[in-house]
């Protein structure tokens, strides 16, 4: 008695190629669904990782700069936590100011969210010599040619006051 089990799969590569051609639409839908599920899961894992990194950096900043940060220009009390809620809360969080252009970290907050707070990354951070500003002072201060800009601003203010 012989039992037939179907075609013999001698060459797996050929079989898979034949299967893919035969089930093109089915595989397309399957891959699309799998991609959506994986993308959602990857985003969720990325959010968890980013939150952990930011929390670790916030702890480091508290050690380095103190529990309660202050704006270096207007001396306003700030917070280390990044609040994405109301606009006024965002303006109370610390803005890291680039004091010069030739630094390894161009955008501090996103960088902290994508880099763990290890010894190597802390060394990179410390090379940047960021200033701590509130949102209002950060917006008003230009990134390039600051000294020149401030001298012109002082000249302008003096001219107005003594006119």
Structure summary:
60% of the residues lie in helices and 4% in strands. The chain is mainly alpha-helical and 163 residues long.
Please describe the biggest sheet, giving its number of strands, its sense, and whether it closes into a barrel.
Answer: 2 strands, antiparallel
Count of individual helical segments: 7
What is the beta-strand fraction? under 5%
How helix-rich are the residues, as a percent range? 55-70%
Rg for CA atoms: 28 Å
Tell the overall outline.
elongated
Mean pLDDT: 82
Taken in chain order, the helices and strands follow as HHHEHHEHH
**Tally of individual domains:** 1
The N- and C-terminal alpha carbons lie at a distance of: 114 Å
Spatial strand arrangement across the major sheet = 1-2
Please count the beta strands (DSSP E, at least 2 residues each): 2
The low-pLDDT segments are 1-5
Look at the helices and sheets and give the structural class.
mainly alpha
Explain how this protein is built.
The protein has helices at 12-22, 24-65, 87-92, 108-114, 119-128, 135-140, 146-161, and strands at 95-97, 131-133. By secondary structure, it is mainly α. It has one domain (20-158). Strands 1-2 form a two-stranded antiparallel sheet. The longest helix is centred in the first third of the chain and has 42 residues, at 24-65.
């Amino acid at each position: 008695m012989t039992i037939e089990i179907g075609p013999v799969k001698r060459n797996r590569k050929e079989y898979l190629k034949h299967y893919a051609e035969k089930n093109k639409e089915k595989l397309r839908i399957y891959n699309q669904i799998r991609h959506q599920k994986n993308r959602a899961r990857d985003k969720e894992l990325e959010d968890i990782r980013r939150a952990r990194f930011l929390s670790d950096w916030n702890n480091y900043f508290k050690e380095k700069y103190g529990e309660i940060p202050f704006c270096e220009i207007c001396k306003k009390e700030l917070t280390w936590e990044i609040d994405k809620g109301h606009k006024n809360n965002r303006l109370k969080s610390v803005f890291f100011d680039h004091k010069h252009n030739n630094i390894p970290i161009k955008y501090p907050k996103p960088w902290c969210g994508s880099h763990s707070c290890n010894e190597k990354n802390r060394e990179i951070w410390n090379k940047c010599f960021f200033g701590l500003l509130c949102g209002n002072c950060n917006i008003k201060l230009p990134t390039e040619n600051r000294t020149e800009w401030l001298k012109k601003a002082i000249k302008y203010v003096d001219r107005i006051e003594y006119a």
